[in-house]
Amino acid sequence: MNYYVYILYSKTLDKYYIGSTKDIDVRLEKHLSNHKGFTSKAKDWVLKYQEVFYSNSDSLKRELQIKNWKSRKMIEKLINNSI
């Protein structure tokens, strides 16, 4: 089974959201639905980036690595280099 690290972007908030999941489509639907949490603040989240991993632990490590950058420029560089 594949696991994914993904980056969403909201134009309304001008923010990125980094997460991991085993099903991106289902996860994005949840982000866009009525729920509690950071992504509930906007309904215009768009998938900007994804990476595939073969283990959940590897995807979680990568998610934490990207989150620890705490740098918008590095996140945007990662997104732009993937295009």
Structural category is: alpha+beta
Individual helix count: 3
What's the helix-strand series? Answer: EEHEHH
- End-to-end distance: 25 Å
Task: Estimate the helix proportion, in percent.
Answer: 25-40%
Quick check: average pLDDT? 94
Explain this structure to me?
It comes from Jejuia spongiicola. Belongs to the UPF0213 family. InterPro entries: GIY-YIG_endonuc, GIY-YIG_endonuc_sf, UPF0213_domain. This is GIY-YIG nuclease family protein. The model has no long low-confidence stretch (mean pLDDT 94). The chain has one domain: GIY-YIG endonuclease, CATH 3.40.1440.10. It has helices spanning 24-32, 56-69, 72-81; strands spanning 3-10, 15-21, 45-53. It has a three-stranded antiparallel β-sheet with strand order 2-1-3, sandwiched between helices. It is built from three helices and three strands.
